[in-house]
Amino acid sequence: MSLFHFVVLAPFLMAVILPFFYYKFRSIHTGWFLLPLPLVLFLYIATYIPFGGGGMEPVIYSVPWVPSLGIDFTVYIDGLSLLFGLLITGIGTLVVLYSIYYIANKQDEPLQNFYVYLLMFMGAMLGVVFSDNLIVLYVFWELTSLSSSLLIAYWFHKEKSRYGAQKSMLITVSGGFAMLAGFAMLYVIAGSTFSIQEMISQAGTMVQDPLILPAMLLVLAGAFTKSAQFPFHIWLPDAMEAPTPVSAYLHSATMVKAGIYLVARTTPIFGLTQQWFWILVIFGLVTLTWGSISAVRQTDLKGILAFSTVSQLGLIMSLLGMASAALHFEYVDQDTMYVTAAMAAVFHLINHATFKGSLFMAVGIIDHETGTRDVRLLGGLMTIMPVTFTISLIGLAAMAGLPPFNGFLSKELFFTASLNAASFDIFNLQTLGFIIPVFAWIASVFTFVYSMMMFLRTFTGAFKPDNYEKHVHEAPWGLLISPIVLGSLVILFGLFPNMLAYTIIEPAMQSILPGLTSVGDQFYVNIYHWHGINAELLMTIGVVLFGLAVALTLPKLYGAGFFQRERDPLNAVYDTGLDQLVVQSQNITKAQMTGRLRDYMLYMGVFIAGLGLFTLFRYDALAISLEGQGGIPIYVWLVTGVLLACTLALPFVSGRMTNLILLGAVGFLIALLFVILRAPDLALTQLLVETVMVVLILLSFRHLPEMTKESKRLLSTSAKAVVSIAVGTFVTLTALSVHAYRSGADITPISDYFVENSKTLAGGYNMVNVILVDFRGLDTLLEVLVLGVAALGIVTMIKLRMRGGEDV
Amino acid sequence: MSNLLLLPVLVPFLAGAVLILLRNHPLIQRVSSAVIMTVMLLISIQLLYTITTGGILTVELGNWSPPFGIVLVGDMFASMMVLLTSIVGLACLFFSFQTMARIREKFFFYPFYFFLLTGVNGSFLTGDLFNLFVFFEVMLISSFILIVFGGTPYQLRESYKYVVINVFASGLFLVAIAFIYGATGTLNMAHIAVQVAEMEQQGVINVAAILLLIVFGMKGALFPLYFWLPKSYYGPPAAIAALFGGLLTKVGIYAIIRTFTLIFVHDTAFTHNIILALAGLTMFFGVLGAVSQFDFKRILSYHIISQVGYMVMGLGLFTPLALAGAIYYIAHHIIVKSALFLFAGATQKITGTTDLKKMSGLLKTHPALAWLFFISAISLAGIPPLSGFFSKFALILSGVEEGRYIIVAVSLLVGLLTLFSMMKIFIYVFWGGPSLKRSDYAHIKLLPLLAPIIPLVALTITLGLFAEPIFVFSEGVAAEILDPSIYIDAVLEE
């Protein structure tokens, strides 16, 4: 175990002891005990940053966990995991601080739950990004889904919270299960390893395997559900029921980027296929556009931000798709053209975390101070909440892609990358590639629109005090610190983007596109505002102008109705799907579990006869040997004939007495057969059983209820007849075949031993008795026990009558 | 040759017999059954240790050497099952002290309990096919009584079906034994295996194999033979339902795995593919049943069926990895399933119902119960890093390696639906607004209720976090049962 393993495990350990702090120091907000942890982790992880700028050597620490299944807990620290690790702990610190002021330490507030979930999430997320072993990654991955659901349902008395929690769990876990199957396929393709780095080292041969495509789709199912890609994004807006610090942390800055992480991490493997490029680009662009258009229709501030997150995740996803194209060219390190997409992806990931985090926190503040997040009620907060206003303005401008904020830079890079991609001479991009910048531009327009509208409807206009239940004023400083920090980062990264260039961005790019530069060399990363008047700038100007026009005319064009259908139409698929799942499974279950014994016997009979006869004929096992059957005397035929007749008559007679007589006849005839076949012990037993049976039934005859007529429908009756006959035929044919088989095989049965030795070894002349009491005495002992238990059971059944509900 | 092997059968047998006499002394009954059950646990630990370190143990009863007399055989697989029996036996017994109406103690509850365990342990340890039938009978007659125990109208109605179907199964079992004896001339399982191998498992022997599969499938609740299970397990008290839910079907599964690794292994392309298909159908229809229900105990009952499918899936895939997964799964399942039924009982004790729609908000009032249940529930669904994950993972990995993608897909889908239905319980029972007033539950002490369950939950966590030794053990078991000669030599060559 290295120290770095404890970085991942520390949140879990803390989660175990945290409730103790909660109960012991009830007057102090539990968040304070937790706050130092992410901060220390952040600082520790930050020591791995290559401040010298000379590139980053990956660091590996490994401990075995379940080595027989190929599962080692291997920590792998490179540019990509470092970036995520810093995001998780850095934003984690700010979110914890923010939450201390956001969730008041009231008497009934289950803070220990909140922080235990949050710690579980933090540890799980660190585990996802630092694990080199796919299965360990998967383990942590599911833990993030789980803790996310628990956090969404933190206020579990609310119906919507429960709905959102269930939805997010079902969608992300189903993706996770698919991903697990994908990982298993990768294991098979890679020749029995779960190590990502080992897979990357043999990626060239792996992509030759036909299994790579299903593996890729399954892994992507995991990534897309987690990162809310179209059409799986529908859980994210409902996840907004979580307390806002959670939304800021999990559902915008970190957890939803786990899918992005996985895609970036596996790009060196899957990126070698053409499908990877197209799937990512198409899904990314559709998500980007769909999300940004949907965001415009929202009236809930968090709803806007949720769809905006969906859209931005799509943007990053499409950039990663474009980035993978670089793997198909040689000498790319000479030319930034191919790696711009990777650079943009990494940079935008950071930027999005900062501006979206600050916006969520600002919205949380508005919600906290005004009691509502509905833009139809809000308005005019500019003067009342000036600090929140400033933070929001910075965040919104960055989101809309305006200079001099970091969002502008990455948006420009996104345009550059999309224009570059359209010009590549692979994958038919020369003909189809133009859609990439077109989609990018349309989506950016809507991004601008919802940013604009969010700004206008919240902060401008008239302030109407009647809309609020509380007295509205600026938030306390405790709530403001975290968004101010993030907002400052938005400006800082906007003005000095190159402080990240070789410390964070370039090392992360090396992880996404390994082996493209010669050893010791680096990608060229230089981000700046002014590129001269080029296509990207014109696109941005177009976005602003067109966006302004749309933002101003849209409400007038469509009126309020446009904003009332804010639920994503795809939810209908999920909702009806879930309803139908329950309804259909009820139908299926009711159809089999009728509660009627005769149905059960019928189903089982079909199965037994069907499978049995099939086996019998499949093996051509049916054999009837008439050897030794010649000397059957006439009276045996007679007895057997009567026996058969009595049995066959049974189903056709009515009346309990007749039934009884026929059954008795069958029993006594069998006893007679035993006599004929020289088995006096058996005959005696059979006679006893029959006699006792008759006596018992006669004794209880008076108490038996009236026999009710079964409604005899021809179809069901004949079905039962057919099945009964089939089962009977199967058993009979098999018995005959066994007999025939036995006559043909050379076997000495163990009964020969009993015949020879019952006198000499066991000292008894009656072989049956010797078998019963000596050779197989245990069987007899146990059968005695069975009878004893039955007797006791009868006593119990007669005497112990409970109503139900006396105990559990 | 070691008499240690007799103890798991002999101790409960004698205990049950003596406890009948103590009918009117409930306290003595309780104390002595607790002591006996603890002793059984120690015995089974010792047995597992002895067998794991020293190899297979056999006992020839009446000193009649096999194949002529009855022989008890303890290998790693059997002794593992015996240990699991003791673990859940102990947990359920202690739970019954807390929850069961006192009147039941006067009606031989403890004797029935121990006779049931006699039958279960005997079924695991016997090396003789007919003796297996007899142990099954002991188990079944005890289970008949326990399932109808209390005699409510619901119990009487449902256990009638249980009895009829199981007696029918016993009849078929007898027929199958007759066929096998007819074809091979022997009853000793090792000897049958030798004979079947010599005959290269031809023709009618396959029919007998299929018939045996059907018989054990009825006991083990495979598709489409599980109809007796869901409703009959709803009737008896939680302690009994937990014991049944954990153990009884697994006896059938054990018998399937035993016979289809020891005896019928020469035409796996046919037999084991049928098993695999049944596995898929079993888990699928089982989980649909669970999805359709809105009752704590009924959901759990249907999940027995779906989970049994996974164990049989391991057998159907028939690779060392898959069998190890199946073994692991059995251990996981017995522990978790019993725990879940006990949770249903504890919840019922607090709320007075098992109907999900009548419960709400217990997370606030009973957080310990909620979280312990949550862990068990997600473990059942196969969420890492609990025991359910690693067992399922081994099965899935093996399925992918073998290219059996359909069963892999089915098992993952079933896992998801399992999660869905278990979350349904959690959402209804533990989330939501409070449904209970403090005065409703204040008198119920939670700790004694949870005490028997906590060790089981701790086990599922341990089996997950420290999966390596468990998995190595499962691989050992799988290796042992995949090489029938080990078993055969231990029984026949002495």
Number of helices of chain A: 33
Largest sheet geometry of chain A: 2 strands, antiparallel
Taken as a percent bin, the fraction of beta residues of chain B is under 5%
Radius of gyration of chain A: 38 Å
Count of individual beta strands of chain B? 2
What does this 3D model show about the protein?
The complex is a heterodimer of chains A (808) and B (494). Chain A is mainly alpha-helical. Chain A has three domains: 3-273 and 352-417 and 461-530, no CATH class; 596-759, no CATH class; 760-808. Chain A is built from 33 helices and two strands. In chain A, strands 1-2 form a two-stranded antiparallel sheet. The longest helix of chain A is centred in the first third of the chain and has 31 residues, at 159-189. With 494 residues, chain B is mostly helical. The N and C termini of chain B lie close together (9 Å). Chain B has one domain. Chain B has helices spanning 7-21, 26-54, 76-99, 102-105, 109-125, 129-147, 153-184, 189-198, 204-220, 229-232, 238-262, 268-292, 296-317, 320-351, 362-365, 367-381, 387-401, 405-430, 438-441, 446-450, 454-465, 467-482, 484-492, and strands at 57-60, 71-74. The model of chain B has no long low-confidence stretch (mean pLDDT 94). In chain B, strands 1-2 form a two-stranded antiparallel ribbon. Helices cover 77% and strands 2% of the residues of chain B.
Outline the fold blueprint.
The complex is a heterodimer of chains A (808) and B (494).
Chain A: H1 3-24, H2 30-34, H3 36-46, E1 59-66, E2 71-77, H4 79-102, H5 111-130, H6 134-152, H7 159-189, H8 196-201, H9 203-206, H10 212-226, H11 235-238, H12 244-253, H13 258-270, H14 274-296, H15 301-324, H16 340-370, H17 381-384, H18 386-400, H19 406-423, H20 429-432, H21 435-459, H22 477-495, H23 501-512, H24 535-558, H25 571-592, H26 597-618, H27 634-649, H28 656-676, H29 680-700, H30 714-744, H31 751-760, H32 767-775, H33 777-799
Antiparallel strand pairs in A: 1-2
Helix pairs in contact in A: 1-3, 1-5, 3-4, 4-5, 4-12, 4-16, 4-22, 4-23, 5-6, 6-7, 7-10, 10-13, 12-16, 13-15, 14-15, 14-21, 15-16, 15-19, 15-21, 16-18, 16-19, 16-22, 16-23, 18-21, 18-22, 19-21, 19-22, 19-24, 21-24, 26-30, 27-28, 28-29, 31-32, 32-33
Chain B: H1 7-21, H2 26-54, E1 57-60, E2 71-74, H3 76-99, H4 102-105, H5 109-125, H6 129-147, H7 153-184, H8 189-198, H9 204-220, H10 229-232, H11 238-262, H12 268-292, H13 296-317, H14 320-351, H15 362-365, H16 367-381, H17 387-401, H18 405-430, H19 438-441, H20 446-450, H21 454-465, H22 467-482, H23 484-492
Antiparallel strand pairs in B: 1-2
Helix pairs in contact in B: 1-2, 1-5, 2-3, 3-5, 3-11, 3-14, 5-6, 6-7, 6-11, 7-9, 8-23, 9-11, 11-13, 11-14, 12-13, 12-18, 13-14, 13-17, 13-18, 14-16, 14-17, 14-21, 14-22, 16-18, 16-21, 17-18, 17-21
GO cellular component, one term (chain A): plasma membrane
Domain NADH:quinone oxidoreductase/Mrp antiporter transmembrane (chain A): 131-426
Domain MrpA C-terminal/MbhE (chain A): 722-803
